[in-house]
């Protein structure tokens, strides 16, 4: 354990083939953040497109060289991907990393920037946090247990600077409703709840969250479908359960966002372990 520190939770570790997945008990170690650790003992390689999702993803490589955003330089602190990233591919080999999923509403306080500034091409965490990101990554590389790694991340986020940026309560409420409704929310009814015009609501939501309300609903629904495809559910079951008009609709959306078919996602161990880590948090 870290000197003078102990983690508040004992990590839960599960395996799937050569993959090891660890999560803090209860899933959350920091308000607004879920964490998981991933380790692939097979030494295998992968290459995947970074998909959109209802959280800002931060992936910190704990074994130098195991993760690399293609077309970019080496990471110094960690890879930060907004909720609607530009089409970017990630390569990995013998992955050993900690991943954080940051609620966009928590991003200004934890990362120092509004979520709208994190869309587009993934960033190095060092571009957001400066030298603090490199220091955290160096300590994570030295740490050997998931308990120590989760404690280091919690410590870094607890002492990091705050941002003066504030998200409107109305925008925050709309975001929570979209997430709680798994993207199946009558978007047209939301402006009236806040006494705003459609244009005002649309503009404020997009400027603060980074996407339009309609795009946000699409991303939330897609993310749920992606996690379900990583379980034993069939493509037809997922399409019906999550509200796609039919299998073809789901097929088109998965292909658009990942470059792969639903069947390929469902049979890939990488997406199975991803679902193991995040599905409980998404459905909580």
Automatic annotation (TrEMBL):
InterPro entries: AraC_XylS_family_regulators, Homeodomain-like_sf, HTH_AraC
UniProt key word DNA-binding: yes
Gene Ontology molecular functions: DNA-binding transcription factor activity; sequence-specific DNA binding
Regions annotated as coiled coil: none
Keyword set, alphabetical order: DNA-binding, Transcription, Transcription regulation
Name of this protein: AraC family transcriptional regulator
Domain HTH araC/xylS-type: from-to ranges: 187-268
Organism: Planobispora longispora
SUPFAM superfamilies on file: Homeodomain-like
Pfam families: HTH_18
